[in-house]
Amino acid sequence: MAMEWLVAYLLLGGFVGFFAGLLGVGGGGIMVPMLTTLFAMQGFPPDHLVHLALGTSMAAIVMTSIASLRAHHAHGAVRWDIVKGVTPGVLLGTFAGTFVASRVASAPLAIFFGCFMAYVALQMVLNVKPKPSRELPGAAGLAGVGAGIGVISALVAIGGGSLSVPFMTWCNVKMQNAIGTSAAIGLPIALAGALGYLINGWGSGGLPEWSVGYVYVPALVLVSLVSSLTAPLGARLAHRLPVAVLKKVFAGVLILLSAKMLHTIFGV
Questions:
Q1: pTM of the model
Q2: Is 60 exceeded by the pLDDT of residue 227?
């Protein structure tokens, strides 16, 4: 691999980790469009650009999820009863979602990703917080919600926070607990998603060297390595910087990156 690509993946890891720590967001919104662009520039097969970006992002989120989970657990912010109820559905939904995504062409996947990121960006700009209006459902209901969150998370390579936090807040879960519990739910999402994309891409023709299924190992290693170092830095700065303003800026970045991704796919 040429030196410029090594540097590009290292810089991407630093950027992803910093904003994940600063704003409490998953890295998929940044990683998927950036990896799609970098993979296209390296001449990877157009038919698998988005699949490789999704699979690699899911695998990279595993390490970020573990670090985030440990931090929130240390502060007693994780509702493990909710995690226990949601996890079976999350695992099944995310794993199944990778099979759906793997059978959809890159162009429709990119459009879905762009639309969903527009929703996430709008949520950030408006600081949408649903009013508590009900209680948490039972075991079957939680599993069903988890399955829905898992399917969408697999299609856009996110940890599910943009869906699980509003849901828990709506069900009268305190915001701190909703965020901490969402971080814990992100780990099974990342694990099931990474495994699903690995299996679905196994044996696919034309994938680049050093790919394991739809996971491109060099990008995974470099992004994960640096993001784990910069995430704590972002978390420390979260208490000193105007996070509300930064979220609006970040929302704009998500829109631009998604637009760039669509341009890359339809211009390939």
A1: 0.86
A2: yes
